[in-house]
Amino acid sequence: MSALASRTEADGSTLLDNTVILWVNELGNSGIHGNMNVPWLLLGGAQGKLDMGAWYKLSQDPEYDCTYFFAQEKCSGSDKLALHAPHNNVLVSILNAFGINDNHFGYSGITGQLQGLNV
Asked: Which of 13, 14, 17, 21 falls 20 to 30 Å from 81 in CA-CA distance?
């Protein structure tokens, strides 16, 4: 990060100002291969197109808890995909920040940007 921040671009901004770094952990609870509460970290300035420096805690519908194996029967079909909507919306926000005009990433039934992430 410090190396990116120390490189000055022609317009006076830094390489970090014009970069997006996405770090994603594969699992939220590795002991049970849980796919909920997965931490994501977005770094960089994205040329001012993403509202960086914010903390988002994305909620899930409490009726569906796919964290535990015994709840997997509740999480099938479109219900399971809908629980993953926030990560799809983050990826759409990144696409749009790079000028790719699309409204979904992956499953086409989940559309739009993450509310508040795009400037």
From this structure: 21
57: which 2 tokens?
């805690």
User: H or E element: which one contains 88?
Assistant: helix 85-97
Length of the chain: 119
Q: From its phi and psi, is residue 77 left (phi > 0), alpha (psi between -120 and 50) or beta?
A: left
In a 3-state reduction of DSSP, which class is residue 108? coil
Residue ranges, the chain, pLDDT below 70: 35-36, 57-86
DSSP-based three-state secondary structure for 29: strand
Question: 44 and 52 in contact (C-beta within 8 Å)?
Answer: yes
Cα–Cα distances (Å) from 36 to 39, 59, 72, 93, 105, in that order, read: 9, 10, 12, 20, 19
Strand partners, 118: 50
